[in-house]
Design goal:
The chain has two domains: 215 residues, UDP-n-acetylglucosamine1-carboxyvinyl-transferase, Chain (Alpha-beta prism); 197 residues, UDP-n-acetylglucosamine1-carboxyvinyl-transferase, Chain (Alpha-beta prism), CATH 3.65.10.10. It is 30% helix and 27% strand. It contains 13 helices and 23 strands. A hairpin with a 2-residue loop joins strand 20 and strand 21. The two termini are 25 Å apart. The chain binds shikimate-3-phosphate. This is 3-phosphoshikimate 1-carboxyvinyltransferase. Keywords: Amino-acid biosynthesis, Aromatic amino acid biosynthesis, Cytoplasm, Transferase. It comes from Pontibacillus salicampi.
Length: 428
């Protein structure tokens, strides 16, 4: 349990840990590649360590020295059967993407996760992958983990995403690597495109026409070195904190600024935040840069439609920002939030209501009434969800009394040195 009492504005410069989405994919694609890949600035959060453990269990030799990881790829068909069931911990990205890979790997695997992951829907990937010929079985007719997978010779699929999910898109594209022919995924609304961008880096020909991504199966992946950019979803907690805390002035350096991820910056701008974004370089196909934010008076906005996939993980912290913005912020089209590490609509609404915020949950979002009243301290639970835990920690900048955060450990999922960074920004 952490006891937090924060009064000063934030100032100073930080670099946040590596991007979670890119870190997962770097291990998976390096494992399927021919040759040795070195990954730097790898996120050492628990979710990404689950991905390393899973691939080690499947016979991939992986060495890690802090945030530098070396992966000895075994090629597309190089994964071995695991002697034990594979624990995916809390990680939805590991589960969904690995199912795509194992669908076409001619072995048998048993996969399981923690209590949160065990109730998250897996049919969103097992249904389309089964159409390609994969065989799954598991709880609730294969809808939930634990799942067993028996990889098959796959046929290609032409699939339109029924939900806006990069994990589903990625799982099908990864399955498509094993299929004989061209797999196509059409996404009505763009979602994060790291899989497509990174596959190209590993030598895979991926086409994008309008909103359809396609690739031919059986292509060889070649090892490459990956420098993981800072995670904008982690940076968001401090960028949002600075935007709403008067007198703050911070710089977060070397953040990934892939346009499919920068929705949070657009929303802060829309709310009237003082924010400047500088793209400094590219790592592979990913733009990287520095973001400066100063505290300002904010106004309410609407967040909906195509905004949502570009900031899905940032909605909890944006809801907190909205509690400080003048007027009524309305978030819609975000029903996917109910299927994250916890039901994030419920968790945010319950937490912010307890803090004294006027907020209502709706089926697909939230309505938040901004106010200048200080928030109420007290004992809060992370719901064992890293992003809810960090939202509560940031709320401590706005309370008059201490916040006692229970199950603060959940933050290690994506941001192991979160409190260290928070302390450094509070000291300036
Ligand atoms: C992710 C995609 C998103 C996001 C998750 C990471 C990814 O999930 O919420 O944290 O790396 O592909 P969905 O695809 O379920 O929206």
């Amino acid at each position: 349990m952490h006891i937090l009492k924060r009064v000063s504005p934030l100032s100073g410069t930080i670099t946040v840990p590596g991007d979670k989405s890119i870190s997962h994919r770097s291990i998976m694609l390096s494992a399927l590649a021919e040759g040795t890949s070195t990954i730097t600035n790898f996120l050492t959060g628990e979710d990404c360590l689950s991905t390393i453990d899973a691939f080690r269990k499947m016979g991939i030799s992986i060495q890690r020295d802090h945030s530098t990881v070396t992966v000895h790829g075994e090629g597309l068909y190089g994964l071995k059967e695991s002697m034990e069931p594979i624990n995916l911990g809390n990680s939805g990205t590991t589960a969904r993407l690995i199912l795509g890979i194992l669908a076409g790997t001619p072995n048998h695997y048993c996969l399981y996760g923690d209590t949160s992951l065990s109730v998250r829907p897996m049919d969103r990937v097992t249904v389309p992958l089964s159409k390609m010929g994969a065989r799954f079985d598991g709880n609730q007719e294969g809808r939930l983990l634990p799942l067993s997978v028996r990889g098959q010779e796959l046929t290609p699929l032409d699939y339109t995403l029924p939900i806006n999910s990069a994990q589903v898109k990625s799982a099908i594209l990864l399955g498509g690597l094993f299929a004989d022919g061209t797999t196509k995924v059409t996404e009505p609304v763009p979602t994060r495109d790291h899989t497509e961008r990174m596959l190209k880096g590993y030598g895979v020909k991926v086409k994008k026409e309008h909103n359809t991504i396609s690739l031919d199966g059986k292509q060889t992946l070649y090892a490459m070195d990956v420098e993981v950019p800072g995670d904008i979803s982690s940076a968001a907690f401090f960028l949002c904190a600075a935007a709403m805390k008067e007198g703050s002035d911070i710089v977060v350096k070397d953040i990934g600024l892939n346009p499919t991820r920068t929705g949070v910056l657009d929303m802060l701008e829309r709310m009237g935040a003082s924010i400047s974004i500088q793209v400094t370089r590219h790592i592979g196909d990913e733009p990287i840069g520095d973001v400066t934010v100063k505290g300002s008076n904010l106004s309410a906005i609407s967040i909906s439609g195509e905004d949502i996939p570009r900031l899905i993980d940032e909605l909890p912290i944006l809801a907190l920002v909205a509690s400080q913005a003048k007027g009524k912020t309305v978030i819609t089209d975000a029903q996917e939030l109910r299927y994250k590490e916890t039901d994030r609509i419920q968790a945010v609404v319950d937490t912010l209501q307890q803090m004294g915020v006027e907020i209502e949950g709706t089926e697909d979002g939230m309505v938040i009434h901004g106010s200048t009243k200080p928030l109420q301290g007290g004992t809060y639970h992370s719901f064992k969800d890293h992003r809810i835990g960090m939202m509560i920690a940031v709320a401590s900048l706005l309370t008059e009394d201490d916040i006692h955060l229970q199950e603060a450990d959940a933050i290690n999922i994506s941001y192991p040195n979160f409190f260290e960074h928070m302390d450094s920004l509070l000291k300036g």
